[in-house]
């Protein structure tokens, strides 16, 4: 649910800033790239060219060559009233793969877009680039930025994230796979934090949080009152394993009773 919310937030944000920059018109490399700019298939509308970020805008049968802001791509499926340049995840470039050269800045690989920050051990942050300036966001706890789907995702689903290193938990080798029978589930209380627990799926951990004032009871495999969970009355005198940002976060927020 959080990820859906996040995605929606991103899309809303995108609509706002995209309409702000819709006057933007690249003039770079336009000349020889377009082949069929002479005709308008219909009097009004936007139409694809041989490149993925160029398009023809027709108004009353008069064509004009346009170029999407760097990092965005022309979506022929966009509705007549929406700005036709969209994020790569929403656009199919088959047959028109070429784009303008990237206009990278110190902060951003393209002027616009969402990009991963960090390495495979630190997967939880991403940045939104707007006009070449970056704005940094955190995924909800335990989730990792997935550049392929443009959303925060389970770290085991993100190809350039090492779920064990990021979450600071390695699934025991006898952990069974997630399944439908009760026997197949394996839960593991976080070694140093009673509030959190892991589920191992295909031997990769996913982090869950019981929430404030609850502790994971590994006898009943449920979130319970801390009083009912042995060893959880006080934070243990040890640090969450791992050196990732998330581990540091845990160390600052150990379960307080
Ligand atoms: C095209 O757009 C113009 C201006 O927005 C409008 O006046 C005209 O009626 C439209 N033509 C068609 C065929 O929809
Ligand atoms: C502990 O567990 C018992 C039953 O197992 C339950 O009735 C009780 O509400 C739980 N919480 C506390 C604080 O005892």
From TrEMBL:
Q: Which domain of life is it from?
A: Eukaryota
Q: Which InterPro entries match?
A: Chitin-bd_dom, Chitin-bd_dom_sf, Chitin_bind-dev_reg
Q: Answer yes or no on keyword Manganese.
A: no
Which molecular-function annotation in GO is an example for this chain?
chitin binding
User: Where does the UniProt annotation place the signal sequence?
Assistant: 1-22
Q: Which UniProt keywords apply?
A: Chitin-binding, Disulfide bond, Glycoprotein, Repeat, Signal
All copies of the Chitin-binding type-2 domain together span: 37-95, 105-163, 168-234
Q: PANTHER family this protein is in?
A: CHITIN BINDING PERITROPHIN-A, CHITIN-BINDING TYPE-2 DOMAIN-CONTAINING PROTEIN-RELATED
Q: What's the protein called, per UniProt?
A: Chitin-binding type-2 domain-containing protein
Originating organism: Hypothenemus hampei (Coffee berry borer)
Lineage of the organism: Eukaryota, Metazoa, Ecdysozoa, Arthropoda, Hexapoda
């Amino acid at each position: 649910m959080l990820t859906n919310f996040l995605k929606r937030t991103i899309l809303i944000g995108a609509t706002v800033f995209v309409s702000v920059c819709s006057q933007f018109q690249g003039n770079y490399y336009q000349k020889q790239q377009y082949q069929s700019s002479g005709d308008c298939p219909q009097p009004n509308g936007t139409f694809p060219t041989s490149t993925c970020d160029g398009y023809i805008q027709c108004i009353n049968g008069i064509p004009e060559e346009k170029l999407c802001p760097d990092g965005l791509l022309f979506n022929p499926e966009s509705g007549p009233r929406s700005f036709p340049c969209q994020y790569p995840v929403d656009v199919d470039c088959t047959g028109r793969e070429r784009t303008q050269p990237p206009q990278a800045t110190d902060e951003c690989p393209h002027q616009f877009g969402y990009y991963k920050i960090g390495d495979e051990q630190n997967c939880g942050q991403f940045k939104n680039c707007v006009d070449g300036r970056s704005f940094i966001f955190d995924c909800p706890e335990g989730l990792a930025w997935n550049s392929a789907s443009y959303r925060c995702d389970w770290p085991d689903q993100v190809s350039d994230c090492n779920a064990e290193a990021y979450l600071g938990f390695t699934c025991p080798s006898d952990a069974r796979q997630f399944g439908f029978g009760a026997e197949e589930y394996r839960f593991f209380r976080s070694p140093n934090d009673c509030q959190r627990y892991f589920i191992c799926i295909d031997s990769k951990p996913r982090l869950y949080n019981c929430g404030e004032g609850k502790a994971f009871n590994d006898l009943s495999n449920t979130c319970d009152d801390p009083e009912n969970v042995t060893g959880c009355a006080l934070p243990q005198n040890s640090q969450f394993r791992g050196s990732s940002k998330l581990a540091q976060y845990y160390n600052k927020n150990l379960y307080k009773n």
